[in-house]
Amino acid sequence: MTQTGRLAGRIALVTGASRGIGAAIAKRYAAEGAHLILTARTEGALEEIDDEVRAAGGTATLVPLDLQELDKIEQLGAAIHERFGRLDVLVGNAGLLGDLTPVPHIALKQWDRVLTVNLTANFRLIRSMDPLLRASDAGRAIFVSSGAAKGKAFWGLYGTTKAALNTLVLSYADELEQTNVKVNLVNPGPIRTSMRAQAMPGEDPMSLRTPEEITDCFLDLAAPDCTRHGELVQAY
């Protein structure tokens, strides 16, 4: 993988950055010169990815954050404004799978929890980070979608959150048509992650691509020269 410095000097926020796709994006962005703001629920997990970011030649600000605590998202936006005055890249990656079960059997607490993390938290991120993205000379926002958004048996909870996220993000993108901000969604497809293993326990993980194998897409969409906007990009 050739490092090109395409994100040199850029400020990039990645949610769910301690493992899987988020961790792979963080390491790739670090190698390309970005300063990272990384969120995850546990400080220990963030410290581990911070070591890898530093090994890749990058720097990071670590923010332990449970996205269910929605007001803390606004606090994060205020802190970014105070320290940096802008945000160049937002990657809304954090997500929960929830139970794979028939729709009538979805537990109410599960419904509320998964919708909060997968949908409402991303709305609050958009709401909080929008002024910071507009303050960038080339703001970029990228959100992680899923093929489950099309609707399939037992995936009603997770799929609903992703279908709603698609609509939210594409609406936001349409509103920014005349600005310097580019907004897109990425459907990674089947990837070797712990969430995938939880959803498909009988699947051979070695038959799947690693998170690192799809970071080219996230780099292209984060770069200042990106021209794609308002798209659901299929990364497979």
UniProtKB/TrEMBL annotation:
SMART domains on file: PKS_KR
Keyword Oxidoreductase: yes
Matching InterPro entries: KR_dom, NAD(P)-bd_dom_sf, Sc_DH/Rdtase_CS, SDR_fam
Signal peptide as annotated in the record: none
Domain Ketoreductase: 10-194
PROSITE patterns, per the entry: ADH_SHORT
Gene Ontology MF term list: oxidoreductase activity
Pfam families referenced in this protein's UniProt entry, alphabetically: adh_short
Keyword terms of this UniProt record: Oxidoreductase
Highest taxon listed in the record's lineage: Bacteria
Protein family according to the UniProt entry: Belongs to the short-chain dehydrogenases/reductases (SDR) family.
Name assigned to this protein: Oxidoreductase
Species of the source: Oceanibaculum pacificum
